[in-house]
Design a protein that fits this description.
The chain contains 18 helices and 16 strands. Helix content is about 50%, strand content about 15%. Strands 3-2-1-12-13-7 form a 6-stranded parallel beta sheet, sandwiched between helices. The chain is of the alpha/beta class and about 500 residues long. Helix 12 packs across helix 15 and helix 17 packs antiparallel against helix 18. It has a domain of about 150 residues: Isoleucyl-tRNA Synthetase, Domain 1 (Orthogonal Bundle), CATH 1.10.730.
Length: about 500
């Protein structure tokens, strides 16, 4: 795997409101995968951004008494700070109001137009202003947006239309030949059903809208916000200004999105790319929603969790762990403060934190702070060693398959086995009763297990991983840590001076 590239993106967010816990869930999940791929030695490139040419943004700007550009110039940096506070290690942050992005959009629009796949005509349909989406009559039981539960507006305009129906068969053929193109399977089945029911051509411009990217050949219209936003995935790797970078990273290995925007990414986006003769992404992963104690997140109903405030209170790593462990990345899940505190106490403070603390403290007390040298392992030691190697492989496989909760479940199985090993071997008794060689072996097995655990938590909890390696005395090696260093037992050199045992996850007060 080492030496290749991995390009991952998340949805481009409307900056009319600051991120909520559901947005953070998506970004953290993508960050885990991006970090893991870099951990495996790949050249991992991660793009995020803000979708600024939105009617919602324009409305928020008007309410504040500033221009949309002034509004987004103020809000976009707050998104950057929010992601930084959650340890999201993106490579490039794209703002759709940038000149760089406008160049990409106009180039793609022109290519599709010149191919004959964009034509001028009248378009009409039911429109949701909140998600800026047209709905087909056959998809609606009532004239209400299924996402926002607000009344739809009938819109009729003369604008430019994408010949989406022309690409129905090619997209279906691609999905059938590449079943991993849309995952999980439930989302793939939904998209296949949608296409088979018939696609209609769609509007890709809006008339009379000043806030947006003008069409390259008609300044009276601006590019439809979704057409604009999808192209951020190309802008982020230099489509408009860096052919070498674009050539290296495209096609994207995966777009990580919410299940509510699959139609744009799995139907409209492939049609755009096919028309522009650009290769399709390899995978689109549509995750579920995060609910708050059983209720759908809603700003208007005050059903929200501020991820930045949660990270300030409990630490970013604790929040990252909880979201990835509690809510599988292929379905809806529930956020609850009660469950969060339970997992913090049991999984983080007790299971992981207590293990690291005990091991470092015992080496400090029994071995003058230096990792001892092991002798021939006994069967009980071999059991831990074998499980360590199995865990390295199992965690990696689960992350590759976007089974992020399963990866943590497997890792915590190993952590708990190590805690049982401490009780079963009772190093404090062996120190009194001997022999010394046995004590050294037990402590080495534990220290090496902690080293491997510290490496495996890195994609999920980067600061925690760093602190574990610091306490093991391996801080100089941490920046160069790669998965291959965990794939063999015995990577911790005997004689290494460990640090001071300090709680990684202090107990809540």
């Amino acid at each position: 795997m080492a030496g290749g590239k991995f390009y991952i993106t998340t949805a481009i967010d409307y900056p009319n409101a600051l991120p909520h816990i559901g947005t953070a869930y998506e970004k953290i999940g993508a960050d885990v995968v991006a970090r893991y791929k870099a951990f495996c030695g790949l050249d991992s490139y991660f793009v995020m951004g803000t979708d600024e040419h939105s009617a919602n943004v324009e409305k928020a700007a008007v309410e504040k008494g500033v221009s949309p550009q002034e509004f987004t110039d103020e809000v976009a940096p707050k998104f950057v700070e929010a992601w930084k506070s959650l340890e999201i290690g993106y490579t490039c942050f794209v703002r759709s109001s940038s000149g760089r992005h406008a160049k990409s959009v106009q180039d793609i629009f022109r290519k599709i137009y010149e191919k004959g796949d964009i034509y001028e005509g009248f378009y009409e349909g039911w429109y949701c202003n909140s998600c800026e989406r047209f709905f087909q009559e056959k998809d609606l039981q009532e004239k209400v947006c299924p996402t926002h539960n607000t009344l739809l507006e009938w819109v009729k305009e003369k604008n430019y239309i994408l010949a989406l129906s022309k690409y129905a068969d090619p997209i279906l053929e691609h999905i059938r030949e590449n079943p991993g193109f849309i995952e999980p399977e439930s989302r793939r089945n939904e998209i296949v059903s949608l296409i088979e029911s018939g696609l209609e051509d769609i509007s890709v411009s809006r008339v009379g809208k000043k806030w947006g990217i003008p069409l390259p050949f008609d300044n009276s219209q601006t590019v439809y916000v979704w057409f604009d936003a999808l192209i951020c995935y190309l802008t982020g790797i230099g489509y408009s200004d860096d052919a070498d970078t674009f050539g290296r990273y495209w096609p994207a290995d995966v777009h990580v999105i919410g299940k509510d925007i699959t139609r744009f990414h799995c139907v409209i986006w492939p049609a755009m790319l096919m028309s522009a003769e650009i290769p399709l992404p390899k995978k689109i992963w549509a995750h579920g929603f995060v609910h708050l104690e059983g209720q759908k997140l809603s700003k208007s109903a005050n059903v929200m969790v501020d991820p930045v405030e949660a990270a300030k209170k409990y630490g970013a790593d604790a929040l990252r762990y909880f979201l990835m462990r509690e809510i599988p990345f292929d379905r809806d899940g529930n956020f609850s403060w009660e469950k969060f505190e339970e997992r913090y106490a049991a999984d983080l403070a007790n299971d992981l934190g207590n293990l690291v603390n005990r091991v470092i403290a015992m080496i400090g007390r029994y071995c003058e702070g230096k990792v001892p040298e092991a002798s021939e392992p006994e069967p009980i030691d071999r059991d831990v060693i074998d499980l360590a190697m199995k865990t390295v492989e199992g965690v990696g496989t689960a992350i590759d398959e976007f089974k992020l909760s399963a990866a943590l479940t497997e890792l915590w199985g190993f952590i708990r086995r190590c805690n049982r090993y401490v009780e079963e071997t009772a190093p404090w008794k062996v120190r009194k009763e001997g022999p010394a060689e046995r004590l050294n072996t037990i402590l080495y097995v534990l220290a090496e297990a902690v080293r491997i655990i510290g490496g495996l938590v890195l994609p999920f909890m980067p600061r925690t991983a760093e602190r574990i390696w610091e306490q093991l005395g391996l801080q100089a090696e941490f920046p160069r840590l790669r998965k291959e260093a965990l794939e063999r037992w015995g990577g911790l050199p005997p004689g290494t001076q460990v640090g001071k045992a300090e709680p990684i996850f202090p107990k809540m007060t």
